[in-house]
Design a protein that fits this description.
Blueprint (H helix, E strand, L loop, with lengths): L2 E5 L5 H13 L4 E2 L10 E9 L2 E2 L1 H8 L7 E8 L6 H10 L3 E10 L12 H15 L1
Parallel strand pairs: 1-2, 1-3, 3-5, 5-6
Antiparallel strand pairs: 3-4
Helix pairs in contact: 1-4
InterPro entries: Flavodoxin/NO_synth, Flavoprotein-like_sf
Pfam family, one: Flavodoxin_3
GO molecular function: FMN binding; oxidoreductase activity, acting on NAD(P)H
Length: 135
């Protein structure tokens, strides 16, 4: 099974989650600047949710995906907003890509908010998320 992890992380919060997911799966997480292999069975995509939505570079990455990606699992971080899942799911489905109904989201540290997040507990839950998706 071909599984890949891609992420966009400006502050390092989403990278921590991406690395935890990838570690659990025995692979290496890569930034979205690295393309996705053809015939990817499961692609984990992570990003943060900002006030204006997901980052424009992440949107471009998603809009360049095609049906050679069979299924996507979404993970995200945010300091205040809830989840990037609805926006990412809508974009992915517009590309004809199957999106897992489960997602992973946790708080991310921003200035003085949510200090040291994602924390160890968050990363343990991210690893569980990865295992559950791959089952």
């Amino acid at each position: 099974m071909n599984i890949e992890v891609r992420y966009l992380s400006k502050s390092g919060n989403t990278k921590k989650v991406a690395d935890a997911i990838a570690s659990e799966l025995g692979i290496v997480a890569q930034p979205i600047t690295r393309g996705v292999s053809k015939n990817t069975d499961i692609l984990f995509i992570g990003g943060a949710l900002y006030w204006a939505g997901i980052d424009s570079d992440l949107k471009k990455f998603i809009m360049n995906l095609d049906s050679s990606v069979k299924k996507v699992a979404v993970f995200s971080t945010a300091s205040i907003a809830k989840s990037a899942y609805p926006e990412m799911k809508k974009l992915l489905e517009s590309r004809g890509i199957n999106v897992c109904s489960d997602e992973f989201h946790c708080r991310g540290e921003f200035m003085k908010l949510h200090k040291n997040r994602p924390n160890q507990e968050d990363l343990i839950l991210a690893k569980k998320f990865a295992r559950d998706i791959v089952k």
